[in-house]
């Protein structure tokens, strides 16, 4: 594959992070996660500390001093900022936090879709996920053009032209399409999905032992984004980081976890919102 993508010359952009606000989250945490969930356990904001940390890493990388100062405040103060945007604290909402170079924070708020909260904790049962949607699992397509890793593939921001281009090449027309495209770097390594973090199951063969499998996800060094769900999965031992090359992938990977020769430009795997 030849990378023919232009350098991202974006000069005006903001850092973003999206999460769920749900008043039922604290009680669900106590039932389904207990100690296998990062503090604070009593927050209605899903993985809020990870979201704050991701935004801070982005502000630090881009040397946005005012934004970094805002994001370095105690979590409790950050919560006070977000609380001002919640229309009704008795309902669930999807939040899109936006922080600009001047440290100004705005939050786009939309009603959250109904979702069994048990599926937001690790380990997640894929049988449970499959029962929620007849289109599960999504069809995954490997992008036909490599994407050059950059700050804009590592830090989540409003500069998303590279993701939009990959989705157009894959023929994805709507966010509701049960299709995802895997971005690949010029070295032929899987980076991530266009709107998701991807996980693959690799089968391990050991002489005189039962065949077992493990979940793996591409390392940040391959060029993918700092993902909140990925950090949660890594911290709690759900998966490990391993370089995943395109030529290792096989069709229907989540049903047959054995890696082998790569033939069709389509794989099935497991993806979570990043």
UniProtKB/TrEMBL annotation:
InterPro entries: Aminotrans_IV, Aminotransferase-like, BCAT-like_C, BCAT-like_N. It comes from the Eukaryota. One of its GO terms (molecular function) is catalytic activity. This is Aminodeoxychorismate lyase. It comes from Talaromyces stipitatus (strain ATCC 10500 / CBS 375.48 / QM 6759 / NRRL 1006) (Penicillium stipitatum).
């Amino acid at each position: 594959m030849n990378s023919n993508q232009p350098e991202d010359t974006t000069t005006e952009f903001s850092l973003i992070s999206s999460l769920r606000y749900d008043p039922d989250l604290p009680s669900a945490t106590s039932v389904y996660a207990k100690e296998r969930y990062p503090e604070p356990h009593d927050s209605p904001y899903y993985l809020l500390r990870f979201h704050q940390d991701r935004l801070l890493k982005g502000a630090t990388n881009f040397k946005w001093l005012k934004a970094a100062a805002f994001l370095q405040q105690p979590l409790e103060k950050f919560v006070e900022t977000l609380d001002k945007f919640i229309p009704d604290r008795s309902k669930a909402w999807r939040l899109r936090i936006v922080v600009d170079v001047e440290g100004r924070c705005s939050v786009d708020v939309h009603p959250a879709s109904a979702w069994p909260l048990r599926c937001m904790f690790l380990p997640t049962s894929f049988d449970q996920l499959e029962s929620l949607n007849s289109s599960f699992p999504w069809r995954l397509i490997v992008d036909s053009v490599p994407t050059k890793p950059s700050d804009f593939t590592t830090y989540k921001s409003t500069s998303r032209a590279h993701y939009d281009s990959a989705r157009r090449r894959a023929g994805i027309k709507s966010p509701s399409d049960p299709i995802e495209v895997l971005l690949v770097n010029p070295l032929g390594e899987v980076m991530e999905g266009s709107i998701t973090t991807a996980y693959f199951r690799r089968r391990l063969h050991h002489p005189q032992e039962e065949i077992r499998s493990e979940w793996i996800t591409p390392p940040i060094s391959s060029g993918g984004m700092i993902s909140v769900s990925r950090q949660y999965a890594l911290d709690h031992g759900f998966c490990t980081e391993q370089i995943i090359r395109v030529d290792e992938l096989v069709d229907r990977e989540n049903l047959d976890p054995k890696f082998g020769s790569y033939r069709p430009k389509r794989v099935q795997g497991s993806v979570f919102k990043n």
